[in-house]
Amino acid sequence: MENLVTSNLKLGIIAGGQLGKMLIQEASKWDIITYVLDNDESCPAGKIASHYIKGNNLDYDAVYQFGKMVDMLTFEIEIVNVAALKKLKSEGLRIVPGPETLELIQDKGLQKEFYQKNGIPNASFILCESKAAVLNCIEKGEITFPFVQKLRKGGYDGRGVAVINDQDDVKKLLPGACVLEQKIEIAKEIAVIAARNKNGEVKCYPVVEMIFDANANLVDKIICPSSITVEQSEKAANYAGEIIELLNMEGLLAVELFIDSKGEVIVNEIAPRTHNSGHHSIESIITSQFEQHLRAILNLPLGSTKLKLPSVMINILGMEGCEGPAVYEGLTDSLAIEGVKIHLYGKKITKPYRKMGHVTVMSSSLECALKKAEKVKQLIKVKSWKER
């Protein structure tokens, strides 16, 4: 029996950023009616959704009432009112991934305990309830420099994280309940996106290598395929597949991992949604992460995750010192380079290090793609009319 319902299917997406926008672009190909909940009336997804609903994703009533408008609910950010989702689920609304998965992933402390319970390799950790408790751990020698502090809830895109290398860095400690991790000597940072549907079919995307911007604490480049060994790649994909199975999750799960100085593969964090580390898939993989998410939540056969061409993705970030109405430079010259695909998210206001778009560069060789990506990075600038 055909189970892909288009035209009459109302898909609700909580939060209307660029991930929601790109998901809607895929959903429109199948004639799915899309609803977006976001507090920002000028949010990227709101402009192209079938229906935009103004509301806060952390407000119980806003999330609950939004859920009553749609046939199925998904999200592009994990910071959502879980109590409202649980109420909607109890009333029969299909929510994918489920609120129980979301609740676990929202709390980095619960995440760490989940890895520990299930034998998933991750950095050693201590849970603390306050900044005072962290200071007490340091004094007692329970945690030693260098270590990383992560707030248990609310962290996103590098926020809610403090790297404490020595006593002088103690002033950077964040207030609130947190996870303390011994700092790992990282050789490489990698990511794998796994997909799973209700039938239990699982597929993983090729492992990507992530290069970070130290100033912004955001991804600077996504390289696919990664330069790690076949064994390391298989371990990473196996961990991703194992985690999504253990969670009994439907949808996409982005798994960020480290390769340490000894070559060991260690899980860092997970996100139950489409992810920045998968943007290259729009052009360089047979099935984009956004189409795959739809396939997974609609319980359709999962698409091929085979790589078409080596690729490098770079984020287009707002320039340091620039804030105001956005203006882009270097787009014409970048588009003149073969294999360059530019995505602008439609955010009208630029801020320092704000994600304004991304560029995927494809070539027959990774070396060539890297050279072109570096050129594009130098060409494209996001400024504001105020600074011109």
Characterize this entry briefly.
It is globular, with a radius of gyration of 21 Å. The chain has 11 helices and 21 strands. With 388 residues, the chain is an alpha+beta fold.
Question: What does this entry look like structurally?
Answer:
This protein is of the alpha+beta class and 388 residues long. The protein folds into four domains: 10-95, Rossmann fold; 124-182, Dna Ligase, domain 1; 184-308, D-amino Acid Aminotransferase, Chain A, domain 1 (2-Layer Sandwich); 310-388, D-amino Acid Aminotransferase, Chain A, domain 1, CATH 3.30.470. The chain is 27% helix and 30% strand. It contains eleven helices and 21 strands. The chain has helices at 18-27, 60-67, 82-90, 99-106, 108-117, 131-140, 230-246, 281-284, 289-297, 331-335, 366-379, and strands at residues 10-14, 33-38, 51-54, 72-75, 94-95, 125-128, 147-151, 161-164, 178-182, 186-196, 202-204, 208-213, 218-224, 251-260, 265-271, 311-317, 324-329, 340-344, 349-350, 355-362, 381-384. Strands 10, 11, 12, 13, 14, 15, 16, 18 and 20 form a nine-stranded antiparallel sheet that branches. A five-stranded parallel sheet has the order 3-2-1-4-5, sandwiched between helices.
